[in-house]
Amino acid sequence: MRNSPSCTCAGSEPVPECNRYKGTLDVFYKVVCQEGFARLWRGTYASLALSVPTVGIYLPCYDSFRNLMENFTTGNAPMLAQYVPLVTGSTARSLACISCCPIELARTQMQFLL
Q1: Do 53 and 21 belong to one domain?
Q2: Contact 73, 88 (CB under 8 A)
Q3: Residue 54's domain spans which residues?
Q4: Phi-psi region at 36: left, alpha or beta (left = phi > 0; alpha = psi -120 to 50)
Q5: What is the spatial distance between Cα 69 and Cα 64, in angstroms, rounded to a whole number?
Q6: Is 5 helix (H, G, I), strand (E, B) or coil?
Q7: 10 φ, ψ to 5°?
Q8: Claim to verify: residue 109 and residue 99 sit in the same structural domain
Q9: Are residues 52 and 26 both part of a single domain?
């Protein structure tokens, strides 16, 4: 049962009770009713603008760094071979984040403007 029958998709001004959410499905219903189905994906373009280049930098760097470090540790320091994924993952992720920092700033500004 609804507490307020005026919380409908009639297009009128929502009453204050309509701004309280009772769960995930309630949020989904109210957003679709009040703003439209397309608003559920608000900010997706901004997130993709950051995700695609970050992953595009991270994966090739990780693979290259891992191959280099595995070759190095196999011949020179076999005891350190177990740390290769940790070091290469950290290095590749740091490089990707540093490279995409300006895109992160633009994404944040885009999300505030939408």
Answers
A1: no
A2: no
A3: 43-113
A4: left
A5: 9
A6: coil
A7: -70, -15
A8: yes
A9: no
Q: Could you give the number of structural domains in the chain?
A: 2
Residue 17 identity (one-letter amino acid):
E
CB contact burial 61-79 (16+ within 10 A = b; e otherwise): bbeebbeebeeebeeeeee
**Beta carbons within 8 Å of 73's beta carbon, 6+ residues apart:** 80, 81, 84
Look up residue 9 and give its two tokens: 């998709």
In the structure, what pLDDT confidence band is assigned to residue 55 with cuts at 50, 70 and 90? Answer: very high
Tokens of 85: 């994924």
d(CA 112, CA 43): 9
Residues 6+ apart with CB under 8 A from 30: 7, 18, 21
Residues 100 and 83 in one domain: yes
- Which value, to the nearest 10 degrees, does the dihedral of the CA atoms of residues 12, 16, 22, 23 take? 60
Residues ≥6 apart with Cβ < 8 Å to 37: none
Same-domain pairing of 27 and 48:
no
Residue 93 has pLDDT above 70, yes or no: yes
Q: Is the pLDDT of residue 12 over 50?
A: yes
Q: Where do we find the tokens 């995930």?
A: 24
